[in-house]
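FIELD: query
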Amino acid sequence: MKKLILLSLGLFLSFTAFSQTPEEMKAWQENMTPGENHKWLASMNGDWDATVTMWMDPSQPPNISTATTKNDMIMGGLYQRSQHSGNMMGMPFMGESITGYDNAKKEFIATWIDNFGSSIMLLKGQLDKDTLTLRGSMLDPASGKDMQVKEVFTKLSEDSHKFEMFMVVDGKDIKNMEINYTRKK
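FIELD: result
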């Protein structure tokens, strides 16, 4: 472990050694400093109750369940870890996302993992007022191919927000999940 820490420190120092000008050092500093978009994410920190509505087939009634979520900022306020637990389709469900705003690329980037699969979903997008729209892909294990997805997070108030997930089929957004969050008191 000590060797790993020393190696990591050495790599960091190597990268910063290339950045000797004040402009380059300023760029590195700006990239590692949380800004307004990070504050927006942090506003949803805390513990949440969730009502999950999921459509496996749009022509059938949805499956409705409850869950809990804990959001907290990590890595000095650069990323939000979101941990989810509940039941889905009669089985225990756990999921986790990491969402951050990349100051250099000027975009949000998010990952998602859960115990219902071994694939990692990767999404990118932009914030428009209090709505964050992310687009990306996830593996369809049945076909072995990537499928396009869209996620929309809407902050409704300091104590509530909504998540919507869409599968993109033939260029059309088909809603398959909605989660309504209420801050635990």
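FIELD: remark
The longest strand covers residues 145-157.
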